[in-house]
Write a structure and sequence with these properties.
By secondary structure, the chain is of the alpha/beta class. The chain contains eleven helices and ten strands. GO terms for molecular function: ATP binding.
Length: 270
């Protein structure tokens, strides 16, 4: 789905070029779940905006959904395949109701009214908002607005959805709903790039990529990251309770492959 090789990106500040990304290489296969993390200002948002054509790399090579993103036409076309769900739920809605919001993108694609209605009904049902299709968007909760943003992505038949810290402004129940929705989509074949700074969400991801100051510091499995790497400590991460217990087990000689990452794995051990 994504093949990025030695990507660089610069922003201009007057006569100076400020480096934002330096030598980033990362492949993402179709149907994969990758969690991307790093401190604020490390370049995460700049990188994901390269993936769907919002930014243009200064150097390196990048293909997304089989399209070379050096081409302006391809940067426009890739948005059909790769969609973003942003951090702020209120910044993504253009319609006055969920039905109108999903319809907006479909109208721009020139779908017939009959096909639009079928697709809108299906995706609102898929995200659990069918019963609120005609509700005023201002009456929706933050979690419901994020689910609506996902519905808009699904209506456009996105092959990959990038969640850019999409749960950071939600309460625990809303976070859980969006994470469960993303996991269901992943199980159905959608490629997911999950951008987060929550350690527990990283631990539950099959693959974690860690950025720092515009470079890629780590790309691999979470068990190695949390139990065999000094990176979490260097970055000042507060370990999740499950990881803290796992480190006690590690100190007593438990092998890496048995150390827990999730509450379910810890429960099985206990």
């Amino acid at each position: 789905m994504i093949t990025a090789q030695n990507l660089s990106l610069f922003f201009r500040d007057g006569q100076y070029r400020l480096p934002v990304l330096q030598g980033i290489s990362i492949p993402i296969e179709r149907g994969e779940w990758v969690a991307l993390t790093g401190a604020n200002g490390c370049g995460k948002s700049s990188l994901i905006r390269l993936f769907n054509g919002l930014n243009i790399p200064a150097g390196g090579s990048l293909t997304a959904a089989g399209l070379n993103l050096r081409s302006p036409e391809n940067r426009t076309a890739v948005k059909q395949h790769i969609q973003l769900v942003f951090q702020n739920p209120e910044a993504q809605n253009v319609g006055s109701t969920p039905y109108e919001d999903v319809a907006f993108g479909l109208e721009n694609r020139g779908l017939s009214p009959g096909e639009m209605e079928k697709r809108i009904t299906r995706v609102l049902q898929q995200v659990g908002l069918a019963h609120k299709s005609e509700t005023d968007i201002s009456a929706l909760s933050g979690g419901e607005r994020q689910r609506l943003a996902v519905a808009c992505c699904l209506a456009l038949q996105a092959e990959m959805i990038i969640f850019d810290e999409a749960t950071s402004m939600l309460d625990p129940a809303g976070r859980s709903d969006i994470l469960d929705l993303a996991r269901n989509l992943w199980r159905q074949g959608t490629t997911i790039l999950w951008v987060t700074q929550r350690v527990e969400e990283l631990a539950e991801s099959p693959r974690v990529a860690v950025m720092g100051q515009g470079t890629m510091l780590y790309d691999g499995d979470p068990r190695t990251l949390f139990y065999s790497s000094e990176l979490p400590g260097q970055l000042g991460w507060e370990p999740a309770p499950v990881i803290s217990i796992g480190r006690l087990l590690q100190a007593k000689g438990w092998p890496l492959r048995l150390l827990p990452l999730t509450e379910q794995e810890l429960e099985a051990i206990l």
